[in-house]
Each structure stands twice: as C-alpha cells, then as structure tokens.
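Summary: Need help interpreting a holo structure output

Steps to reproduce:
1. Submit the protein chain below together with the SMILES for zinc ion.
2. Request a joint structure prediction with the ligand placed.
3. Inspect the structure token block that comes back.

Expected: a single structure record containing both the chain and the bound molecule.
Actual: see attached output.

Input attached:
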Amino acid sequence: MHRRTSSLAPWPWAALVLIAAAAPAGADPAAKQLFGVMKTPAALSARAIGSYTRGCLAGGRSLAISGPGWEAMKLQRNRNWGHPRLIEYLQRFATESRDIDGWPGLLIGDLAQPRGGPMLTGHKSHQIGLDADIWYKPKPAHSIGIKERADSSSIMLAEKFGQKVISENWKPGYVKLLKRAASYRETARIFVHPAVKRALCEGAGKDRAWLRRIRPWWLHNYHFHVRLTCPAGVAGCVNQNPPPAGDGCGAQLSHWLKLMASAEKASKIKRKPPKKPRPRRELRLADLPQSCRAVLNTDTASGASGARAAGQPAPVPERRPPDASPALSADAKATMDPNLPWLRGSAASAPKRPAQMPPPARKPGAGTQ
Ligand SMILES: [Zn+2]
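--- attached output ---
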C-alpha cells in the first residue's frame, strides 16, 4: 500500500507536463506551463526577446554553480540561466566586488529559466534573461553543498514594511556592494527595499549619480534584483524607460516610505475574508512575442527535447562539488557553464542534457519582480 502511494507521489507534476505537452489543438495553456517545464535552452543564438515581464530567452547560458566570488543558490529551481550579457555581468561583479571592495562573495538566486518566459511560481519579470536576484547574505567561508544551497535562506535587511534597515544586520559594506552593482554601464536598475534605499542614500557621500539606478520596490528585503539593459542591436528586446533624473533620495523615497507605512497599517487591520479571490489572468503564448514560439519549439544543441520528462525527478546530489572537482556528478556538470576553462575537455565538449529538476519551490520572502 505504502509502495503504491509513494510510486504515485510525483503524479501531479507529471500530469502537468503531460497536460502542457499533449494539450489538444485549440487548448490554450498558460505560457508559464509551457516555459516552466523546459529544462534546457533553445539552440539558437542568444537573444532576449520581448520585455522583462513579457518575453522569453533564446540561446540561454547557465551560470556556473561556483566561481570566483560567487555561488549559485537553489539549484533545484533550474533558474540559473541568462543572456550571456547577464552571465558576464555577474562574473565581473562577483570578482570585482570581492577583489576591490572586500565583499566575501555573492550568493546568487534566481536568474531565468532555460528558455526564459513566465514561471510556474514567483517573479513577474525575469523572463528575458537580463534579471538576477542576489542575496544580501554574503557567501560563507565554508564550502556550500547542494543541499545547503537548497535549504538555506538569505538574511533580512528590513522588516517587510519597515521604515529603516535592521541595524544589527546592516553593514557599511552594502553601500560599496550596491554602488558597484549599479555602476556598470549595462545596469538598468537595481530593486531594493525602500529602507535599503534610504540607508544607501544616507551612506553614499558625495558621489551620488549611481543612486539613480537604485529603485525602491516591494519585498526586496532579502535580496536585491539587478536588471540589465538590452544588448545593443538586439531586435525585439524592449528596454524599460530610464529611471527619473536625480538620486531618488528626496520625494521619491518619501513616497515609498509612506506607501510602506500605509501597507503596514492595512496589514494590521483584520478584514473579513474576501468572497472570491479574483483570478489573475495568466499570460498565454499569444501574449508573448511571436519569436517565443520558435524558442519553445527549437531543440537543444544535442538534439534532446527541451521538455521536462514526466515524473521521476533526478536525485539531487547531497554533497557539494568542489570548485574544480573532476568528480562532479553529471547532473551538476550539466548545470555549469561549459565555457569555463576548468571544465574544458570534460563536460565542456558538448552541451549536456541538464538534470531533471524537481518542481521549483517558492522562496520565503521572494519578490514578484
Ligand atoms: Zn527578482
């Protein structure tokens, strides 16, 4: 009896895949069900297609799970994919913040799915491979295993609706870190909690131009969110309008702090439960740029289908692969960047079919950006 029950355990996930893959003609599944089951990138040249909240990613590249100055977290989500512009940005930011600013290293959360697009859980944006979440928690000195990457969480710099950062958790090093993140030419915006913006405004000193790109937003009290501009000359990649002029530390910040105070007040008022939650209209494939159909329909370079196989997620390795270990599991190798020199001649020779990942789980404190 027990055996039978456990053998059925993965069925809801498998069923979802089957629904998405074998939907009858005329069925119109939500785009997140189509993109959310893709576990490998489309073998097309790299292209961010559409806008941050309505688009997809061709030729996605994976961020190595470990590198000089960074570790990728929550690998079970399979969201460590991005446009090469984003991967190169993260590599450079991680190295320079460590070597120049003395930051212990980055813990990097969600980038995008292998083919971008809407996700089954969390995030309205992160669809075109130009967004990345970076934890406020610095990289620990010890080696991080796969399980620890999956189980650990970041630190909170401000209460959900807080007016100020939590003083015990705030360090002056955050000013240098966020300043560096914002100062690269390709940085479009960085989303932080309003209390974090306030602390940055107070700690910035005379050089304040970078603060223009630091934008307050809801729920960014555990991580900050880097958004890059579209690479030059990429047709169909839609930039967001530039932020308003100025450092954003005056009326714009005050406005956000008022919003926080109102939201906190509202959260404390006991309300009657709503009669019927209004269902959110999910994006359909037809809502995305036309090119996203080709992104869905193109196989990976190895010829493997990008669709997640039904059921039976692969076991997640329990132990951390060392940074340059030749004994990495095939699953771990598959999520790594094949262009890294230490992988050449092993996993690098041909794109591998990445591991089947269990369904993504919602991260506590995750924002909707
Ligand atoms: Zn984000």
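--- end attachment ---

Reviewer comment: The pocket of zinc ion is lined by residues 123, 126, 131, 133, 225, 367, 369 (CB under 6 Å). Residues 251-268 form the longest helix (18 residues).
Status: needs-info
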